[in-house]
Design brief:
about 25% strand; 9 strands; single chain; Rossmann fold
């Protein structure tokens, strides 16, 4: 059983629409969702059901049309734009499906960006990013530029960038999509290790049922709503 103060992410009545009038599309239709500290929560469902929109709202990249989102008890909607940026920079690591790597930076420099943005000196930031890349099997590619990396390698750089500053909330959009089974397992093991922390949570959007066994909770979405959440047997036995 989890206690109320274990909640890392809390969404109540989240609605998100795009367009107006006859072109209006309701993507999220009254979402209630929670993710807990010390756990890895998977968000699953068919393409187009609203998963990526939901995590974008949670991360503050999109504003909800209705409803309330709290992250570690803080509502981004009540913060100034500057405070939102500072809060996300400190507390959030986001792995985008399209990687969003900077072409002029090496893999290590890309992974070091959150530390550099926080004012860490370059040598320390790059050293830390190379340690994370090494754990992801990317040590030999740390000085390569994105254009010379495969899709799977770029995905691991994006993951290293999300982990390097040890954020309290890590959100991943299809982190194993471009990876073979062995690489996918390594990525998920690193995420699972990151989640095993009393003040950290990991939320993963995935279609990859090969990695479902890593989840502490699996929340199912369909047509803009949460249908049900199932717990991993290890939690049920706790």
């Amino acid at each position: 059983m989890t206690s109320p103060d274990s909640t890392a992410v809390s969404c109540h009545g989240i609605r998100k629409s795009f367009g107006t009038g006859d072109t209006k599309i309701d993507v999220l239709r009254g979402i209630h969702f929670e993710a807990h500290r010390g756990e890895m929560t998977f968000l699953v469902g068919p393409s187009g059901c609203g998963k990526t929109t939901l995590i974008s709202v949670i991360a503050g990249l999109l504003d909800p049309s209705e409803g309330k989102v709290s992250i570690f008890g803080q509502q981004l909607a009540k913060m100034t734009s500057r405070d939102q940026i500072l809060f996300r920079r400190k507390n959030l690591g986001f792995v985008f499906q399209q990687y969003n790597l900077l072409p002029a930076l090496t893999a290590a420099e890309n992974a070091a960006v959150p530390l550099l943005a926080a004012g860490v000196n370059r040598s320390t930031a790059v050293k830390r990013s190379k340690e994370i890349l090494d754990r992801l099997g990317m040590a030999s590619r740390a000085d390569n530029y994105p254009r010379t990396l495969s899709g799977g390698q770029q995905q691991r750089v994006a993951l290293a960038r999300a982990l390097v500053h040890e954020p309290r909330l890590i959100i991943c959009d299809e982190p194993t999509a471009a990876l073979d089974h062995k690489s996918g397992e390594s990525v998920m093991e690193l995420l699972a290790t990151s989640a095993v922390h009393p003040d950290r949570a990991v939320v993963v959007v995935t279609h990859d049922n090969r990695v479902f066994h890593f989840a502490d909770r699996i929340t199912h979405m369909e047509d803009g709503i949460i249908t049900h959440t199932e717990q991993n047997p290890k939690l049920q036995a706790a």
